[in-house]
Amino acid sequence: MKREEIEKLREAVSCAAVLEQAGFAVDVKESTRRAVKFRRGAEIIIVTHEGRGWFDPLSDDKGDVFALTCLLQHLGFSEAVDRVGDLIGFTVAPVIWKKPPSKVEPADILTRWQGRGLPATGSGVWRYLCWSRAIPISILRSAINQGIVREGPFGSMWAAHSDGAGLVVGWEERGPDWRGFSTGGSKVLFRLGAPDALRLCVTEAAIDAMSLATIEDLQDGTLYLSTGGGWSPRTEAALVDLLACPGTHLVCATDANSQGDAFARRLQALAAQVDRPSVRLRPPAEDWNEVLQERRREKLKSEGRERRAASPPTASREASPG
């Protein structure tokens, strides 16, 4: 096939079509318009460039629709071209987005970050984190004091990702009705705790990092980290930089599911590459925030039982003198 025909084929068939045919499904909650996450069991593929590109967040694999077909079907390039040609005219299932596209052009990352206020008592993000997600005020105040959280729009939280120099390069966005990552920002690491800590706990979300910090009572000598659910060359470089300090060790505190297990294996492989010890810390629920919320539910139930036990029956109170 001529080069011009291959280029036309590349434009005509989306990576999403290849993934749907292979049994992958869109994870809407974890997707954005610029990066659509597809899952098939523990496998994850992120589709970018309006369907023309893709990458695997758990490996270094990436490319175009032909490279994706080669990867999934274990084919050579010529065979992959034929398989992609069979998908011309294939209609991809539409993705229903809850958040309308922004009409505002993205400004400079640091300017946008500094333009948002710190969480205040009773504010939208305060209620979301402390009431809905069971993050205690003490942990939220620690994050505020470190300057790593901001008030996002509509009661959402912005959790900073920073580089090795402490410069904010992007942020996780989490709220009651929205989750995403800053437009134009870079995923590196969310960092809660002492920057020179030797115990590095890596989670998949900033809220999980804060939840684990709560469960461990913000353990001294520990840095609670989040990759924001992604794995970029900058994330890997940042982790290697942190592990370079003598005496450091890695705690793979990712989610208790197949994706979290795969992520933990990759983290442990990275630690082995730089000759640092690592352990798997698996949450007893789906993730660390679910563990925290379950503890709060149990505490509220216990307090309710104690109050009822301390109060005499109605009949006894009515018969008591006075």
From TrEMBL:
Keywords linked to the UniProt accession = Plasmid
Q: Where is the composition biased (Basic and acidic residues)?
A: 292-309
Q: Which InterPro entries match?
A: DUF3991, UCP036054
Q: Point out the coiled-coil segments of this chain.
A: none
* Protein name (database record): DUF3991 domain-containing protein
Q: Where is this region: Disordered?
A: 283-322
What residues does the DUF3991 domain cover?
Answer: 127-195
| Pfam families on file | DUF3991 (PF13154), Toprim_2 (PF13155)
Q: Acetylation as a keyword?
A: no
